[in-house]
Amino acid sequence: MTAAAQKLPSNTNQERETVQATEVGGVSGAKLKNFIERIERLTEEKAGIANDIKEVFDEAKGFGFDVKIMRAIIKIRKQDTDARREQEELLELYKAALGMAD
């Protein structure tokens, strides 16, 4: 029995069962439900945003832009400048080692 359930008067069995049902092993059912519902709402929003992004890529493709290259540019723009330079240098080094240098 939880500490919260033990504090209830003995004549409130229904209340005790409710507390036990919402707090098991030190886990608050109400708090857990709140987190789950927030995550579900955010997941729905994320799906909506992903669809919006897809529509923008489709629009750009309609104007003749290469979506694969656009995604690569977005990935590069997220990187730290020094990390990006290091990666580009390694890419050039590897290409040269394979005889693919420009």
Topology, element by element:
Layout: H1 3-7, H2 13-22, E1 23-24, E2 27-28, H3 29-62, H4 67-78, H5 81-97
Antiparallel strand pairs: 1-2
Describe the structure.
The chain has 5 helices and 2 strands; from the N terminus they run H-H-E-E-H-H-H. The longest helix has 34 residues. The protein is elongated and about 65 Å long. It has 2 domains: 53 residues; 37 residues. Strands 1-2 form a two-stranded antiparallel sheet. It is mainly alpha-helical.
Q: Can you tag this structure with a few keywords?
A:
single chain, 102 residues, mainly alpha, two-stranded antiparallel sheet, 76% helix, 4% strand
How would you briefly describe this protein structure?
The chain has 102 residues and is mainly alpha-helical.
**Which residue ranges are poorly predicted, with pLDDT under 50 across at least 5 consecutive positions?**
1-6
Strand content: under 5%
Adjacency order of strands in the biggest sheet: 1-2
Q: Indicate the percent of residues in helices.
A: over 70%
Q: Would you report the number of β strands? A: 2
Order of helices and strands: HHEEHHH
Mean pLDDT: 85
